Amino acid sequence: MIPSNPNLGSSIAVVGGFLFLLLLPFDQLLTPFGLNEFKMQYIGDILKNSVIIIGGIFLIIQFGYTKISGLTQFKPKHTILVLIPLYFILAGPAEYIVLGYQFDNVNPINVLILFLAMMSVGFSEEIIFRGFVLPHLIKGAHSEQSLLAPIVLSAFMFGVLHFFNLFQTDSHFVTVLAQVIYATMFGVGFAIMLLRTGSIYPIGFLHGIINFASNWDDLPGTVITKEIANFRTYEAIVSVLIVLPFFFYMLKQLPKIDRKSLMERYNT
């Protein structure tokens, strides 16, 4: 059982605010510009996530979490930890090759828009969950309590949020459940990576580039040459399994985090 944390309620409130902003129809602001559906959606996401990033940074500064959140350190320590998740980038293209996706008719401008949108998602989620929620829960944890408790709490909130993907018109329960599971594992891994490297920037970039590599099929002009309906369950299982090595490797890094030096990162 995870011990109670006095900062849990306010962490949930911040996540609720994050969710509220996610649900706002920012894309409707672009209606007067006559953009197509793809551009409206993803440029709207860029605007939305920019607001979330600004709000998250404001919270981090107000609560004195600039050091522990990694906002003040651009160059990460233990660089090897940042390189390990790069193997996830190969998963998306591998899937597209197996399923016979063709991208010959894709507009490069749309690729750029997708890239910026996925980067905005990566940084907004890292700023909120690893930049604010994680330090907030660590600060509220008892001194004798393992760091794993606040790490798991922040990761669990991040993972459960993905259940809202069930409301998308083309959602599948098995796929969404897999997203919840591997997002939670990612949350644990990225939290430990932040505490070990001391910088949130490479984690935000990794998060964004992994999302980008996995969403090429959203690009207008994409052609799929094989039936993918029967591939959903297989994809869900593989998605979880591929995260496991990263998850367990990062758990092995947890004992290397010195709690005393970690607490010194809070702004005084």
Search tags:
single chain, mainly alpha, two-stranded antiparallel sheet, 63% helix, 1% strand
Would you spell out the secondary-structure blueprint of this structure?
Blueprint: H1 8-23, H2 37-63, H3 79-83, H4 91-99, E1 101-102, H5 108-140, H6 148-160, H7 173-197, H8 201-213, E2 223-224, H9 232-253, H10 259-263
Antiparallel strand pairs: 1-2
Helix pairs in contact: 1-5, 2-5, 5-6, 5-8, 6-7, 7-9
Explain what this protein looks like in three dimensions.
This protein is mainly alpha-helical. It has one domain (8-263). It is built from 10 helices and 2 strands; from the N terminus they run ααααβααααβαα. The protein has helices at residues 8-23, 37-63, 79-83, 91-99, 108-140, 148-160, 173-197, 201-213, 232-253, 259-263; strands at residues 101-102, 223-224. Strands 1-2 form a two-stranded antiparallel sheet. Helix 1 packs antiparallel against helix 5, helix 5 runs antiparallel to helix 6 (148-160) and helix 5 crosses helix 8. The protein is globular, with a radius of gyration of 19 Å.
